[in-house]
Write a structure and sequence with these properties.
The chain has 159 residues and is of the alpha+beta class. It is built from 5 helices and 5 strands, in the order βααβββαβαα. The chain has a 5-stranded mixed sheet with strand order 1-2-3-4-5, with helices on both faces. Strand 3 and strand 4 form a beta hairpin. The structure holds coenzyme A.
Length: 159
């Protein structure tokens, strides 16, 4: 990674740039609100948004956190113009340090089925597939209904 790239916790002034970056990286979905996710992550000391800055500009970002058992990594994205320069690796390593320093011995992350290409990146960083199936339930009924509709619309638009 270039020496002029610095990684640190997101400042409130970088919020919009982070959301724009995640959108540009294809990480957002209509049923996942990055604004709300950042608000929740920054309201607790068990989560953080890490950014990579070059020349004062946000060129990468990731969300990390821990649940008292495992660390987690979400929303990892690097500006398409600055990829393959080690920024993604450095963000993952910074998130690992963040989790480990809080006692989490392992880090979990999710890769969408349609994003298999990124598996080579994670393999290069030592990440292994789990033998587990990942399940989820949306706890807010209004969110669940909105998500159902938005996922159907998203799927229909992609044939
Ligand atoms: C995945 C992503 C964060 C990688 O960022 P990056 O800064 O380009 O990654 P790095 O330069 O640190 O790559 C580290 C190593 O990973 C591997 N790697 C990175 N991108 C790869 C690719 N597209 N294909 C194969 N291997 C890859 C290489 O071994 C690389 O080392 P090398 O460049 O010395 O060969 C970036 O491609 C991205 O933002 N993708 C879109 C968003 C996304 O899919 N995020 C993950 C969601 S789960």
């Amino acid at each position: 990674m270039d020496a002029d790239v610095v990684i640190g916790e997101m400042t409130s002034g970088e919020r919009d740039s982070v959301i724009a970056l995640w959108t540009r990286c294809g990480l957002t979905r209509p049923w996942n609100d990055p604004e709300a996710d950042i608000t929740l992550a920054t309201a607790t000391d068990t989560a953080a948004v890490l950014v990579a800055r070059a020349g004062g500009r946000v060129v990468g970002a990731a969300m990390t956190g821990h649940d008292g058992h495992r660390g987690a990594l979400y929303y990892l994205g690097v500006d398409p113009d600055t990829r393959r320069g080690g920024i993604g690796r450095s963000l993952v390593r910074a998130a690992e340090v963040w989790c480990r320093s809080r006692g989490a011995p392992k880090v979990n992350l999710l890769v969408r089925n349609e994003n298999q290409a990124v598996l080579a990146f994670y393999a290069a960083l030592g990440y292994l597939p789990t033998n587990s199936v990942s399940l989820y339930r949306t706890l807010d009924p209004e969110c669940a209904e909105r998500e159902r509709v938005e996922k159907a619309t998203w799927a229909a638009a992609r044939g």
